Amino acid sequence: MAVAIVYVAILIVIIVFFMVTYTGGNRKRPVAKAFLFMAVMSVCWVACEILYHLTQNATVARLLYDYKIPFVTLAATSTVPFVFYFYGLNRRLNRMTYVLLYLIPAVTTLFALTSPLHTLLRQKLVVNISPVLHTDYNVRGIWFWVHTLQVYLTLLCVVFFVIRQHYKTPRSKRAASNFLLFGITSTMALSIVSVSNIIKTPFDITLIGICVALVFFYIGTAISEKAGFLSLARDEVFNNMHEMVFVLHADDTIAEMNKSAKHWMEKMRIITQGGFDEILESLKGAGAEIYPAPEEGTGMDIHFSTPQGDNVIINYKENVITDDDGVKGKFYLCSDVTKSRAIFHQLAEHAELDPLTGLQNRRGFEMATHALDTPSNLPLTVIFGDLNGLKATNDTYGHKQGDQLIITAAALLRNACPPSGRLFRIGGDEFVMLIPNFTEELAEQRLCEINNLFATTRNLPIQPSIALGYAAKNHPEESLLAVIEEADGRMYKNKQEAKGA
Known about the structure:
The protein has 501 residues and is of the alpha+beta class. The chain has helices spanning 2-23, 30-54, 58-67, 69-77, 79-86, 95-101, 103-113, 142-166, 171-196, 205-240, 259-268, 276-285, 338-351, 362-372, 390-397, 399-416, 440-455, 480-500, and strands at residues 122-128, 134-140, 244-249, 254-257, 289-292, 300-305, 311-323, 326-336, 380-388, 422-425, 430-435, 465-473.
């Protein structure tokens, strides 16, 4: 008897210790309140057990035997809201849920408090205190079995629920969930031992199971405190991001959107119950165009006009969500890049422009050769020009006059360039024209026109002149690079001839 009392007292100390240490700074958390309620019910249950073993009055013992039943059913039933709060499923618990959940425990409490007046809980109970406190005869009533069935069904459902939620829990909370799983399964196992009478003991094994569960629950909730804070922080970051985030299940249906995404969907008047592809189709149907982003590996750009009449560019990129078991889903990160793309294009244009003449530079020329090298542009003519006398002008009259000579040459060549052609300054005194659908005969005529323009210019200290050469790509199988080299070679030959003359 003394051993039983000491053991039960130790369990009380453990429960009180965890009640005080865990709930000290977390009383407002729903999961802490649920834990505290379970602990209080368990303490009252243990108190009834201690008083039962200490009393020397058979009538009091008889009452205590039944008065502990409400604490049993309430402690077991309160595991339901606790696990819901633990896994963050608060929204599933409403007033009606609590009414249905605690209906049978409430009736059991009423019957337990009035047990001497009826036989619903106990048809007959004979308690003998000689030589030690023990039960001589115990016939349970019909409601006792209703109460017992409710308790075990509740614990069984909680076990299955915890197992199911455990495998859905993020890895950051999986360790905490393990303790919850251990606690609830140990409670169920010890309860089964108690009912089956496998072990004969003066202790209430079901009570021990609840106390063991409370220890595991405390450890689990304490561990999840940090994970819960990090989860809350992630939620806050997620919802306050300026970028739009669409999270998709493995079947490509949208699981979640942050506030920015929801606001954008409302602004664009897009309604979808499907996946991200439906959003893209809705935008395409409204006239949007989708292109690869300028920088490789940065996703796709959506060009469209908003219902408010603004031209907007949204960049999106697909990212995969994985764990140890493989791909679980994906998310799209979408950003409004309208301003940055405008800056990018401005910088790109400036990067391709020669600041002195305003013509495109060598980089622009190289990009143009790739863009224009198509069968539809054949024959594609290349005209090379090398300005004569630039070094002499710089040496004799200074670089300012040399720059003026370059500017004048650029203006003359621009006037001589056909509307379909493009003019580039690819070096200090080197110019080149790319002219689609331009034959060699037309190129010869154009060279004559350029020479005449240079010959009639009289506004510089040195008469401007230019060495020219041309070549044309007439067939798709020809190499444009070889044509460019041929035109450059002819230009160099013309320059040498002019020097010899």
